[in-house]
């Protein structure tokens, strides 16, 4: 099923409002995009790799990861094979957050005309 731009925006609005009401963490678009990249794409994930895939700067990724780490949605760990590289890993809290957010979006999708 393909939806048009107006329907897509209505879904985004309804999901955003539902997330606000559910008291979900307040993530920026960049933080959410990075979080989804980590959880929906195969590991391993590095700061350098995330920056390249998303076409944003490494400092921008680092700032977003600071917030996501503070919320325990991701974890950073030194790469044993390359100590200069930082691995970005999933957490249980992040998995739960995204599963609940996915359920929330799915639930509001039915109410969008």
List the topology elements.
Elements: H1 5-21, H2 29-40, E1 45-46, H3 47-54, H4 58-70, E2 74-78, E3 86-90, H5 92-109
Antiparallel strand pairs: 1-3, 2-3
What structural keywords apply?
60% helix, 113 residues, mainly alpha, three-stranded antiparallel β-sheet, 11% strand, elongated, 3 strands
Task: Record the strand order, biggest sheet.
Answer: 1-3-2
The biggest sheet, with number of strands, parallel, antiparallel or mixed sense and barrel status, is: 3 strands, antiparallel
Oligomer designation: single chain
Low-confidence spans: pLDDT under 50, at least 5 residues? Answer: none
**Helicity level:** 55-70%
Query: What is the rounded distance between the termini?
Result: 13 Å
Number of strands: 3
- In DSSP terms, counting alpha (H) and pi (I) runs of 4 or more, how many helices? 5
């Amino acid at each position: 099923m393909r939806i048009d731009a107006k329907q897509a925006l209505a879904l985004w609005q309804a999901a955003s409002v539902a997330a606000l009401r559910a008291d979900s963490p307040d993530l920026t678009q960049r933080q959410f995009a990075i979080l989804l990249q980590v959880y929906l794409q195969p590991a391993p994930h590095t700061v350098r790799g995330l920056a390249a895939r998303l076409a944003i700067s490494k400092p921008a990724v680092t700032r977003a990861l600071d917030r996501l780490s503070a919320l325990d949605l991701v974890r950073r760990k030194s790469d044993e094979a390359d100590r200069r590289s930082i691995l970005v890993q999933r957490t249980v809290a992040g998995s739960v957050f995204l599963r609940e957010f996915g359920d929330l979006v799915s639930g509001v999708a039915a109410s969008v005309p």
